[in-house]
Design a protein that fits this description.
The protein is an alpha/beta fold and about 290 residues long. It has 12 helices and 8 strands. Helices cover about 40% and strands about 15% of the residues.
């Protein structure tokens, strides 16, 4: 896998296809494999785009510096990666925290971002609009799963505690969680202890300058793809109301990870919106 030093951090990336640039940005605790597993890069490339995926700092194969995990830091990484790879203005697809990074990059580096597609993103600067802030269903599910092996995560989202808990797992607890999560989830589970060595747990939930007013000031087109059972539907409604021309769409039968939970519907929506944002009349999903 190729790598490049961007913003002082070695980031590993992959590219496929040719044409206007699309960059896929994964969520915190994930890595670029989530896109590859779902076949999204190949599907988008089949529509005539050059697709770049990469591991955020601290994730996957990329360097793991001790600090620098806010969305502003990650947006700076994105801008440096963009420059190092010689990309053109890119359409950026970001899942969860990856969407926060994408929108922050559109605000801070508008010359490098042609448009943003958000996938179920939560914005710390918009926490006031979420009625269940701190207790989203995805955290409830995670807490329940860890509880099955005797690990208490707490009632509210606490990534730092999650990472520390992963470090402290006994071999029996780790094996039990491996069995629960299966082949797809094991890579995610094994990444958690590595993040405990960083400030990621605290910094990913920092506003980092991306206030509600700053979100509303983003000048690039935005698509809000939120899952049918998402804990963040209030955010989707806010974005649609406050961002001029924001297109919102619900991905059925998914609750936070549509790229895996409903791959066909998510892929079709992404391809359709990319084609529209790129000014193509065919909708983009007819090929491949």
């Amino acid at each position: 896998m190729p790598d490049v030093v961007a913003n002082g951090v070695r980031l590993f990336y992959q590219q496929t296809g040719a044409g206007p640039d699309v960059v896929l940005v994964h969520a915190v605790t994930s890595n670029q494999a989530v896109w590859v597993f779902a076949g999204l890069p190949e599907a988008i490339a089949a529509d005539g785009f050059r697709v770049t995926t990469y591991d955020l700092r601290g994730h996957g194969a990329s360097d793991r510096p001790p600090t620098g995990y806010t969305s502003a830091d990650m947006a700076a990484d994105f801008a440096a990666l963009h420059a190092a790879l010689g990309l053109g203005p890119a359409l950026v697809v970001g899942h969860s925290f990856g969407g926060v990074v994408a929108l922050h990059a559109a605000l801070l580096h508008p010359d490098r971002v042609a448009g943003v597609i958000l996938s179920d993103s939560f914005f710390p600067g918009l926490r006031h609009v979420e009625p269940n802030y701190g207790r989203p269903n995805v955290w409830v599910d995670l807490r329940e799963t860890f509880g099955k092996v005797g690990v208490e995560l707490g009632e509210t989202v606490d990534f730092a505690h999650l990472f520390r808990s992963a470090v402290d797992l006994t071999p029996d607890q780790a094996k039990a969680l491996d069995d629960i999560y299966g082949a797809v989830g094991r890579g995610w589970l094994r990444q958690l202890p590595r993040l405990a060595e960083t400030t990621c747990g605290a910094e990913v939930l920092a506003e980092a300058g991306l206030t509600a007013d700053r979100v509303a000031a983003v000048g690039r087109p935005v698509v809000a793809l939120y899952d049918e059972f998402s804990p963040f539907l209030a955010t989707s409604r806010w974005l649609e109301q406050h961002l001029p021309g924001c297109a919102a769409e619900v991905i059925p039968a998914a609750k936070h990870l549509a790229v895996v939970e409903n791959t066909p519907a998510f892929t079709a929506a992404v391809r359709r919106h990319l084609a529209r944002l790129a000014g193509r009349a065919d909708g983009g999903a007819a090929r491949g």
